[in-house]
Specification:
CATH class: Mainly Beta
CATH architecture: Beta Barrel
Shape: globular
Order of helices and strands: HHEHEEEHEE
Number of strands: 6
Number of helices: 4
CATH superfamily: Nucleic acid-binding proteins
Distance between the termini: 38 Å
Length: 125
């Protein structure tokens, strides 16, 4: 009995996640709630893709040919985009403001539109 009691705390801690990760959303969840969440700050995870000079980086989820495929365009300043470009292909967790401006009403966005305005990169893994 004593051995089991000593093993339980480390085993219980192994499954713990941070509060941020516990309340994070996938790129697909944010994409599906874009208009409703406009202006809201969220924690969102996905894979960084498509970081090119003078264009947006994207946060994607799932392979292109899967039903789970979703992508969100990331805004941000040049320094933030350079940092994201280094994380291209990796899964990241970011804090960002949802921006549905290009999806509301008669607004037409050309070129460098964005659905997320990143505040900070929490981690890349």
């Amino acid at each position: 009995m004593v051995r089991l009691a000593l093993l339980l705390p480390p085993m219980a801690l192994a499954g713990c996640v941070t509060a941020t990760e516990a309340r994070s959303y996938s790129a697909k969840e944010v994409s599906e709630n874009l208009i409703e969440w406009h202006g809201r700050t969220v924690f969102v995870s996905g894979y960084v893709s498509g970081c090119e000079p003078y264009s947006s980086c994207y946060l994607v989820e799932g392979p292109r040919d899967s039903v789970d495929y979703a992508f969100l365009s990331l805004g941000g300043d040049v320094d933030f985009k350079e940092m994201l470009a280094k994380a291209q292909g990796y899964k990241v967790l970011i804090e960002a403001e949802v921006d549905a401006t290009c999806h509301i009403g008669n607004v037409i966005c050309m070129g460098n539109s964005r659905e997320l305005k990143p505040n900070r990169l929490i981690r890349a893994y």
